[in-house]
Specification:
Order of helices and strands: HHH
Radius of gyration: 19 Å
Structural class: mainly alpha
Distance between the termini: 68 Å
Length: 110
């Protein structure tokens, strides 16, 4: 059955299309986070020269990849141009945030 209010019907349809994508993207982010932590700990336990830098780079790279894929999945109901713009903005903001945190850590390093 369809409701007699087309605007409410369209709104409910868009929400029902978005919820499974949101749940699957949250599951994907949690899997990526668990994998990134596991690999970071694995590198930290090994005797690799420069393990701290390598483990941090690998951690953020894996987390970034899984977040981008989950954004692609969750933004599937939207237009391709809009989802690409959102992903590009997320990449820019994330890159600036990571660069700021690295510079801040280096500045206050004893």
């Amino acid at each position: 059955k369809q409701l007699k209010i087309p605007s409410l019907t369209n709104w409910l349809t868009s929400i029902l299309l978005f919820l499974p994508a949101l749940v699957s993207s949250l599951i994907l982010i949690s899997i990526g986070f668990a994998l990134a932590i596991y690999l970071r700990d694995l590198i930290e336990e090994s005797d690799i020269l420069g393990w701290r830098i390598l483990s941090n780079i690998l951690f953020y790279f894996i987390l970034y990849i899984f977040i981008i894929y989950s954004l692609k999945i969750s933004l599937m109901p939207f237009d391709s141009l809009i989802s690409n713009i959102i992903i590009l903005l997320f990449t820019l903001v994330g890159g600036v945030a990571v660069a700021y945190s690295v510079v801040r850590k280096e500045k206050y390093k004893p």
